C-alpha cells in the first residue's frame, strides 16, 4: 500500500510525538524517497521547531520586556487580600 | 509575606515575566502566571537556601504555566474544532481528493541576519496567536514547553490519537501561516 502525501505528512508529524511502528517507518521512508514535497514538509517542521526555540530565547533575553507596573501592583494587592 | 513578594517582584519579576511570556506568548497569561507563582511561593514552606531564589521561583512558574495552558485548553469548546477524525475533510485546504499536496512545498528561507531574524520571529509569534485557542494550547504544551506526550494526554484527558491529530493540525496551520507571510531572502 502506497501512502498518500496526506497520510505521509500525518506520520511525519506523529513521529515527533511517538515512535512509529516498523511498517509505518518503512512506508514513510519509501514515500519520502520518491516525494520531494513531503521531504520539504518534514524539513519545514524541523525549521518550525528551531524557530520556536529561537523565539523563546529571544524573549527571555530581551531586557526591554518588563513586568508592567500595573501588573506588579495588582499582584501585591491580590496577595494582601488573599491573607 | 507581602514584603517577601515585593522583594521577589523587584529582584526577579521582570525575569519571571519574560520567561512566562517566552513560553505562553500572551501578555495577560504571562502576568497571571507570575501572580500564580507568587501566591504559590508564599503558601509553600518557603524558599530553602540550596538553590537561588530565582531558580526556585522559575521552578514554580514552570508548573503554573502548564496549569494555565491546560486550563486554556479545557475552556475552549471542542466545537470550535472540526471533527477530530483524521480522515475528515478539514485538511481539504492542503490536499486534493487523491491526497496530494495542493501547494508546491518549499523549505523556508531561514533568516540570515539579525533584522530578518526579528521579522521572522515576529511573524511566527503572530501565527501562533492566530491558531484556534485549543490548538495553540496543545501545541504550546508539546512543542514550546516540551511536555511529554503521555503527560499531555493525561492532563488534557484526551487519547493519544486525538493529541496527534490536534498537533498535526496546529503544525500544518503554523507552517501554512509562515509560508503565506514569510518571504525571506
Description:
- The complex is a heterodimer of chains A (83) and B (185).
- Chain A has 83 residues and is mainly α.
- Chain A has one domain (5-82).
- In chain A, 76% of the residues lie in helices and 0% in strands.
- In chain A, helix 1 packs across helix 2 (22-34).
- The radius of gyration of chain A is 22 Å and the shape is elongated.
- Chain A starts with a helix and ends with a helix.
- In chain A, 31% of the residues are buried.
- The model of chain A has no long low-confidence stretch (mean pLDDT 93).
- By secondary structure, chain B is mainly α.
- Chain B folds into two domains: 2-75, Rna Polymerase Sigma Factor, Chain: A (Orthogonal Bundle); 78-181, Arc Repressor Mutant, subunit A (Orthogonal Bundle).
- Chain B has seven helices and no strands.
- In chain B, helix 1 (2-24) runs antiparallel to helix 2 (27-43), helix 2 crosses helix 3 and helix 5 (133-144) crosses helix 7.
- Chain B starts with a helix and ends with a helix.
- The relative contact order of chain B is 0.12.
- The interface between A and B is large, with 49 and 57 residues.
